[in-house]
What we know:
Helices cover 78% and strands 0% of the residues. By secondary structure, the protein is mainly alpha-helical.
Amino acid sequence: xxxxxxxxxxxxxxxxxxxxxxxxxxxxxxxxxxxxxxxxxxxxxxxxxxxxxxxxxxxxxxxxxxxxxxxxxxxxxxxxxxxxxxxxxxxxxxxxxxxxxxxxxxxxxxxxxxxxxxxx
Length: 120
């Protein structure tokens, strides 16, 4: 059953022409429907445009960590090919890895909260 088949009620209400134009302008800017604006506002839910922005942010974060992982692999290949890495370089590399682990944990906590908000 698609979303249009589930809709079986219609609500009519009066609104000033100027207010409707304002609402439609908001919808146009946010690239959402007037129905979505009203329902999500009444139900205190996240707007569709905000949901898209959050998902884009999550994707961007994932790409950043992907690049970091690639860089880690490159450092490991260099160390393996040279069969040597100085103690200072190893300590610095290890510190950076620890920092990444902390950031990844924080990101995952944030994503859990975001997903909870998106599901409302």
